[in-house]
Amino acid sequence: MGHSHDHHDHGGHHHHTNNKKALLLSFIIITVYMVVEVIGGILTNSLALLSDAGHMLSDAAALGLSFLAITFGAKGSSSSKTFGYQRFEILAAFINGITLIVISLYIFWEAYQRFLNPPEVISSGMLLISTIGLLVNIIAAYILMRGDKDENLNVRSAFLHVIGDMLGSVGAIIAALLIMFFGWSLADPIASIIVAILIIISGFRVTRDSFHILMEGVPGNLKIEDIRNALLNMDEVKNVHDLHVWSITSNFPALSCHLVVEEGTDNQEILKKTNQLLHDTFHLEHTTIQIDEKESSCSENRCN
Question: 69, 154 in Cβ contact below 8 A?
Fold first, then answer.
C-alpha cells in the first residue's frame, strides 16, 4: 500500500491569517451596519432597506461562519476526526446557502403584499441609510479582496455576498430617488425583488457547490476519465480499479485507486511514477494507491 501526502498548506500560514483578519473585520463592520439598516428599514417603512438588511444578515452569517470555519479548520486532526475539522467550512457554506434561499423567499412574499397595497415610505431616510450601506459594502469588499478569495470557497462566498449586497444598496438608493422625485412607491418592492433574486442565485450556487463536496463528488476541475486514461497510459499498468476522486474541503482534492501492474514490476518505482503523474498533471497531492500484480475479483467500483 503506498501513500503520498505532501503537506496541505497551499500558500501557507500567511494566507490563513490574512483570511481570518479579513473575515473578522468585515464581519464586525457588516453586523453593526445591519442593525442600523434594520432600524432604518422599520422607521422609514422601506422593504428595500429591510431586504438589504436581510442580505446583510446573510452576509454577517457567511462571514461569521467562514471565520469559525477557518478557526475550526485550523484545529489539528484527532484520533476520531482524522481530517480534523476541515469539512466544517463546507458544512458552514451549505447552511449558509440554504439560509439565503429562505430569506429571499420571505422577501418575495413581503414584496407581493406591497404590490397589492403599497405603503408610504420615508424616502429621505431611506436614501441616507442605503448610501451609507453602499460605502460599508465597498469597504468590506475591499477588505475581502485582500484575503484569498480565489482559493477559498468560504472567502469567495463571503465576497460574493458583499458584492450582491452592494447591488442591493444601489437598488435601494435608486428606489429612494424614484420615490423622492416621482412619488413612485412601487420602486421599493421592485428594488427588494431584485435583491431577493440576487440572494436566491448566490444561495443556490453555494448550496450546490457545498452539497457536491459533501456528497464526495469529483472536483469540478477534474475529469475522472482523464485521470483513468492517464494511469492506463503508463507502460506497466494493465488496469485501474476502484478509482475515487473527491474533495475533503475546497482545494483539498484526494484520490484513491488500485493499479493492476505487470508481474515483476518494481512497486515502489511505479508508485513514485504514479504520484508524480497525478501531482504534475492533475495537482493531486493526497493520494492512496494500492498496487496489485494479479487481477483480484473486482468489479469496476467494488473490491472484495
Answer: yes
pLDDT at 5: 45
Contact 100, 206 (CB under 8 A): yes
| Alpha helix (H) residue ranges in 74-216 | 88-116, 123-145, 153-182, 187-214
Identify any residues that bridge with 2 across adjacent strands, giving them in sequence order: 289
Which residue, chain included where needed, has cell 441616507? 128
Residue 234 is given by DSSP the state S
Sign of CA dihedral 43, 47, 53, 57: positive
C-alpha torsion sign, points 12, 13, 15, 20: positive
pLDDT tens column, 156-212: 777 777 877 788 788 888 888 998 898 888 888 888 888 888 788 878 888 898 888
pLDDT given at position 8: 43
In 3-state terms the chain splits into helix, strand, coil percentages (rounded to 5) of 65, 10, 25
pLDDT at 149 over 80: no
What is the distance between the alpha carbons of residues 160 and 137, in angstroms, rounded to a whole number? 11
pTM: 0.70
Q: Are 256 and 242 in contact (CB under 8 A)?
A: yes
